[in-house]
Amino acid sequence: MNVSDLVRQAAERDPDGVALVEHRPERRALTWRELDDAVDGLARALSGRGLVAGQRVAIVMANRVDLPIAYFGVLRGGMIAVPMNPRSTTAEIGRMISDSVSRVVLCDEAGVGQVRDAITAFPDGERRPAVVVDGVDTLDGETAFGAFLAEASGTAPAAPVDPEAAAVILYTSGTSGRPRGATLSHRALLANIEQVASLEHLPVGPDDVVLGLLPLFHVYGLNAVLGQAVRQGAPVVMVDGFDPSGLLALIRSEGVTNLPLAPPVVAAWAGRPDLREQLSGVRTILSGAANLDPDLAEAFAESSGHWIEQGYGLTEASPVVAVTLASQRDLSTPPKPGSVGHPLPGVEIKVAEGDGTPAAAGDPAQIWVRGPNLFSGYWPDRADGPDAEGWYATGDIGLIDDDGDLTIVDRLKELVIVSGFNVYPTEVEDVISEVAGVVQVAVVGQPDEQTGETVVAFVDIAPDAEERVVLESVEAQCRTRLARFKQPTRLVPVSGLPRSATGKVEKGRLRALARSQDLGL
């Protein structure tokens, strides 16, 4: 099956039911039939431009009704969707477009400026993709989104019937280093949707109204929220940006019953005196994308009357691996504090050493995952995917208790997760190292109540350079070159970096220092 078939099935079951809602600022709603027709139109328009199965289409959009049209339309045409954060920098967007060799870029006002600048900066001889813009006036050579849909003619292209065909490329870190494109097949995405849908206690049911706050360029929002909602035929209220009071009002006015969230939203709402009343119509609240502090979860439950179901996943697993709704427990009682729950049906996990040897009972070790929801490897050659026995080492450290529930202890990877988004230290270090007066730099993560983690940069400054000037230059460089969530919230000037006997920077010592009270953090 093609993932876009989920839309067609929903349209056949309930053609006049509401599928998507947005407020930008006027309310706009699409029925399942209208969504399915628009998906067909997008697929035909891409085919009319000469695209064929397997070619890539970048989607650089904020959460709006047209984003699911773009996503499912790309898949229905047999092409590969490449969702990107529309608030990434020009350099980041340019690198992903170039690396994926995207033939068309579908973008809106949130990312069109960076897309235009990125394509303009392409070197001579590099193929420039066609640009389709939504919500803003077009420039020469561009096409408006509505006009692009109007180009559709004939029948929709027949997507290859191949479950292993790539559906999405999502840029992530993998187990180390710079961002890489994780290749997710139709098989993997659909497997994870069905694994979640097979739970006795459904995270999303057909009678729910789902909050679409989590960005759809992230696998959590794309497959765990949008994919599951479409599978169940549940309408999604699309939201771009977080206004704590305004969002609560929208939840009540739209009758939202299902809230997939990330920890920063939980932190912003916890303790509000009106929270219990505002969320009185909500059935389920779920948190993922980053660890949720147990004390914060307890504070939220006290003020809202709802405990939060938690999950664990990763891009390479499409993404859900475990969730507290899968645990053997009475749902009238809260989840175990700190636990991310039991593996989904069809998903196997083990904690093992780096060579796959099982860890001793009670010892934390790296989490390995096996199941049909796993990715095919990294773009373009599907390298570094699951091993010959189907196991994939996640780079996360965890414990499995006697009930089979998983607790995340730490990360083997050095990446920092800010509000659920990956920050790759080498990327930030490369940007800072270009500043005059910087001898060397090391970037680590520090726990943060609001965002899960925050970025801290230890900067070794040349003895003959003025510290204030160098640090101001570093801040300016980061503002220009890095997306906001990647920018260090603290620059720590140091005289040399701690190194091991082999010369490697000891980031464990730096993380401990970043967490110490000596820094006043």
SSE diagram, text form:
Elements (H helix, E strand, L loop, with lengths): L4 H9 L4 E6 L3 E5 H17 L7 E5 L5 H11 L3 E4 L6 H11 L1 E7 L3 H9 L9 E5 L8 E2 H6 L15 E7 L7 E6 H12 L12 E3 L6 H14 L3 E3 L5 H10 L4 E4 L1 H7 L5 H4 L5 E4 L6 H11 L4 E5 L6 E4 L15 E5 L4 E5 L12 E6 L20 E10 L5 E6 L4 E3 L2 E3 L1 H9 L4 E11 L3 E10 L5 H15 L8 E5 L12 H9 L6
Parallel strand pairs: 1-11, 3-4, 3-5, 5-6, 6-7, 10-11, 12-13, 13-14, 24-25
Antiparallel strand pairs: 1-2, 8-9, 14-15, 15-16, 16-20, 17-18, 18-19, 19-20, 21-22, 23-24
Helix pairs in contact: 1-2, 1-8, 2-3, 4-5, 7-8
Write structural notes for this entry.
With 521 residues, the chain is α/β, with parallel strands linked by helices. Among the domains are: 1-19 and 30-161, Rossmann fold; 416-519, GMP Synthetase, Chain A, domain 3. The protein is built from 15 helices and 25 strands. It has helices spanning 5-13, 32-48, 66-76, 90-100, 112-120, 145-150, 186-197, 219-232, 244-253, 263-269, 275-278, 294-304, 425-433, 467-481, 507-515, and strands at residues 18-23, 27-31, 56-60, 80-83, 102-108, 130-134, 143-144, 166-172, 180-185, 210-212, 236-238, 258-261, 284-287, 309-313, 320-323, 339-343, 348-352, 365-370, 391-400, 406-411, 416-418, 421-423, 438-448, 452-461, 490-494. Strands 12-13-14-15-16-20-19-18-17 form a 9-stranded mixed sheet. The protein has a 5-stranded parallel sheet with strand order 4-3-5-6-7, with helices on both faces. Strands 2-1-11-10 form a 4-stranded mixed sheet. Helix 1 (5-13) runs antiparallel to helix 2 (32-48) and helix 7 packs across helix 8. The protein is globular and about 70 Å long. Mean pLDDT is 92; it is low at 517-521.
